[in-house]
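Subject: Protein record for review, amino acid sequence with backbone structure tokens
Concerning: The relation between a protein's sequence and the shape of its backbone.
How to read it: Take the token row as a discrete description of the fold.
Enclosed: The protein record, placed directly beneath this head.
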Amino acid sequence: MPDDLTSLDAAELERRAAEIRERMRPLEQDLAGLRAERDVLLTEIRRRERGEHRKARADLKAAMKEGRFPTVAELVAGTESGPLADFEYSLKTGGQVKLGFPGARVQTLTFTDGVKTAQAADLAGAAELYEAGWELGSPGRPGVRVHFPGTRQERVVPGTDVYARPATGLGDEGVGSK
């Protein structure tokens, strides 16, 4: 609009604005139709993603029940070395968790001898403490401290209720790994 708008009176400005609004009306209707089509497609994509996530979680729970994955207690008792990060951890309900405290840089397991506590940042340290007779947990609170990724929510659960699977194993393609 190269016109000098300051020289136009108010009625002319209103007329031009109304003309432009009239030209925009079909475009806005087309845009609303396109947005509706997009929303239908996005809804279908989300529905499929939820279905895949549910199936992956059900497959993971079935694999845990079949005994294909060790519990954290079994892992500590039977493994001599390796980082805790080589595994992904899930509750028996299938929910993905991380070991230790929320916000920690590395996952850890806490052990107690009934009076003192010690933290193991890898399976070698965990095996060493386990061989020395230390148990998972802290004095008066046996179990494994877990937290849910991306939250500050934590709890202590029995070591037999947390399952470990290789980080590239079953469930890696969708169970909580986004």
Q: What stands out?
A: Confidence is low (pLDDT under 50) at residues 169-178. Residues 1-178 form one domain.
